[in-house]
């Protein structure tokens, strides 16, 4: 990638001279799509980011939300898509490291991770190679730093074949006294670099992430991928905690995209200030590095701190205690952002212009066409087997069992459930976490599919008895210069924004990743949402049923023939055909509120949302060796009733049918489906047919990933 002619002209006009080689490289990276959001920023105003509990919204390294007057959580999400294609292990691992350091720069301690992963067809050898490498990278890094990975999602879709997605969210814990931001405070304060030595890895990573992947990317773009060291990150986490404890930090920014140049210039630009930096002062791990390499290398495990002069020695002492490098590289000024190397000025620009001066793109957009209704004719038993055993709906145990999800002793509900719950004992609250998207949904209908993704994540949280609090998004799209791709991207932004506003859930931050395009074509528009919710206490109803109790469905069942739309379903993904996307509930906010209340009721035995794979998969997931279900579905549309994926629906096992009906009166329909048994079987009667199976056979069907990879 190189600086476009029009951008170069703008830079020359601003500087009044030709830019230096280092300045060109800085503008190339900081004005890239990855950093400047040139194609997406005009759309992002659709999001409502304000709320009574929002302390810090979009624009910082992570958002900050109050649980109570004294306890804050931080919330952030990042993508590491291109690097994970080129080097799946290091690409995914450094994605974890980056979002954790975003948490540190807010003065917070990381307490939970969630990963949302998207790959090509599961039976493709290259997709499996990427899948295994990414999971290994995430597990290695997260386990080594001692931050539990408690939630997330994994989806397989043919259009990720040439460009997988790795989206990672992190939740941290802080309070008002410990809160730090990325806004420089005062001229004369020192800029201190703490952490690993700077090497040559990750050069040009920001610009690399702003281009389509080339056919030879796995070999040619390897130098743009960073190499992680989780043991150094763990030391950095603890050192950061000590620095914050002693209030030694005035502001902070982690070194990610565009390396030192990106972090230091953004830090001072946010404060309307400048900096004088001497690049040769940066501690390095490779010999003979030049100014450009020092400025732009994206070597990991590094933080840039603003420190008052009288505190510099103490910061150095703490860094040395944790065996971390420490360099005083310059100071904050009220002038330009300048960098010198061995006495020569290599950068002298206005920091705000560098960070905010990139012109926005005005791109053509085409709305996607509505699909026709063309349903396949498939036997119910064959469809049940295929949908329940599909890699996208099957058990993800092979993934999450590699993660230490209990380290930190806060995990009350771990991965494998609708949402995780982390105990925030400081506020005596449980924090529910859900993260994911649904590529089949947004491929079929970007706007409605994105609305559905927001509602699905909220339903996951409500199923654990929590109320949605805030969300961050990772908006992944293909090449925005293609009108159909940009039209789909616009749809997911508007759909996500509309439903989050309806649910009174502010979107407090996020990330945009475009140019996820390769020789295989663009990815589906993929709006990953990481949502958190709060509840009193840490307990929640399980997903699995007990051996006695009535089973109810909350939401539409599709009672009449052709009543249920199958658009975006795993059923259509398995057997072909097309259909319109299903309608969403009329009162989603009321539904979420009622579901959270019912989930916390003493008479509720189990709750499970109905989403990917529809009712068939949800029923199968609730059965255990000791508890089964006998279900009768009063529908004239068996395929629609079993495999339709209308979001905002849930299965509830209860001891009080009347209490559930009362809770949802005027909000959503409640249908009695049947009751639990004590024999571990699942019997689904629908029309004149019955599907019968048991927990052992379901477990075997759902072990698709484990069976293939072990």
Automatic annotation (TrEMBL):
It comes from the Archaea. It catalyses: N(2)-formyl-N(1)-(5-phospho-beta-D-ribosyl)glycinamide + L-glutamine + ATP + H2O = 2-formamido-N(1)-(5-O-phospho-beta-D-ribosyl)acetamidine + L-glutamate + ADP + phosphate + H(+). The active site is at 34, 80 (proton acceptor). One of its GO terms (cellular component) is cytoplasm. Mg(2+) 2 binds at residues 102, 254. Its EC number is 6.3.5.3. It is found in: Cytoplasm. Substrate binds at residues 79-82, 101, 226, 298-300, 513. Residues 1-37 form the Phosphoribosylformylglycinamidine synthase linker domain. Pathway: Purine metabolism; IMP biosynthesis via de novo pathway; 5-amino-1-(5-phospho-D-ribosyl)imidazole from N(2)-formyl-N(1)-(5-phospho-D-ribosyl)glycinamide: step 1/2. InterPro entries: PRibForGlyAmidine_synth_PurL, PurL_linker, PurM-like_C_dom, PurM-like_C_sf, PurM-like_N, PurM-like_N_sf. Residues 186-336, 551-685 form the PurM-like C-terminal domain. Keywords: ATP-binding, Cytoplasm, Ligase, Magnesium, Metal-binding, Nucleotide-binding, Purine biosynthesis. GO terms for biological process: 'de novo' IMP biosynthetic process. GO terms for molecular function: ATP binding; magnesium ion binding; phosphoribosylformylglycinamidine synthase activity. Residues 59-173, 416-533 form the PurM-like N-terminal domain. Its main location: cytoplasm. ATP binds at residues 37, 473, 510. Mg(2+) 1 binds at residues 78, 511. The keyword rRNA-binding does not apply. Belongs to the FGAMS family. Monomer. Part of the FGAM synthase complex composed of 1 PurL, 1 PurQ and 2 PurS subunits. Part of the phosphoribosylformylglycinamidine synthase complex involved in the purines biosynthetic pathway. Catalyzes the ATP-dependent conversion of formylglycinamide ribonucleotide (FGAR) and glutamine to yield formylglycinamidine ribonucleotide (FGAM) and glutamate. The FGAM synthase complex is composed of three subunits. PurQ produces an ammonia molecule by converting glutamine to glutamate. PurL transfers the ammonia molecule to FGAR to form FGAM in an ATP-dependent manner. This is Phosphoribosylformylglycinamidine synthase subunit PurL.
